[in-house]
Automatic annotation (TrEMBL):
GO cellular component: a single term: integrator complex
Source organism superkingdom: Eukaryota
Annotated ranges, domain Integrator complex subunit 7 C-terminal: 105-220
GO biological process: snRNA 3'-end processing
InterPro entries: INTS7 (IPR033060), INTS7_C (IPR054519)
UniProt protein name: Integrator complex subunit 7 C-terminal domain-containing protein
Transmembrane regions: none
Amino acid sequence: MQILQQMCVMLEQYVDSICVSGSAVKDDPIEFGSKNVRLELQQLVKACEHAVKIAQNLNNEEPVSTCTITHRQVEVLKVIVDLITKASLPVPRYFFQVLQSTSVKLAISPQPRVLGEFISVQAGSQLAVKVEGVVQHGTQPGLFRKIKEVVVTVTSQLQNSQKNKEILDPKLLEQVSVLSQTVTPHNDFFAAQFLLAFPRGGQYLLVVEASVIDENSNAWKTGPRSTLTVKVPEETKLTPIAVPGMANNANVILMPEDSLFTRGHLKKDVNKTQH
């Protein structure tokens, strides 16, 4: 920080000397002392020392009138600014080093029997989802922040498929159900339960995500993000079928297992007509 302050004072002196007092810098040149600085500051200090030498060479030239600013003065000022801006800024020691890391590991149930398959849920029923997790810390837990709460969020959305194209209202595919629960971990362990409802048949995508809240109420998106697929069987459409032997205007609705009964009657009627 001191090096940056000296650099700003140096630029202030040079701009003041060119615009007010001609080409002469009244104050003594600033000494940066490149031998005793840290490694990350050496490049910036060398650029500042080079700028000081250029300014001193300008002081050795014949002074000009204070009422005018020459092209030579402007060029020198541009060179000084280029030297300083091209030098890399000092990066703190721990800028690229992680001192504290926090991660969350989740265990979700139920799980499909085969990895990558879907979870089957009967139409009209609900699915109970249990999320258990543990907060994992690095080598120095609680160095900068402490975990106060964990937020578990579950979202479900009906996926687009060939069968869903028959839906009259396409907005149903855009509806997303979001359930969230905030729990307090005990000894870094936590658990949350959700009861999900599926209003219609189809394939749903469940997304389970976790985030943490520190003691200052700041939210941190640590993850993880897990997905599950739930399949709800489509309701079979029942169509009225005319049954032989009944009144012409009478239609009954038959289930798929009644098709054998219908085909048997149709065969008998065909045989009678042939005779």
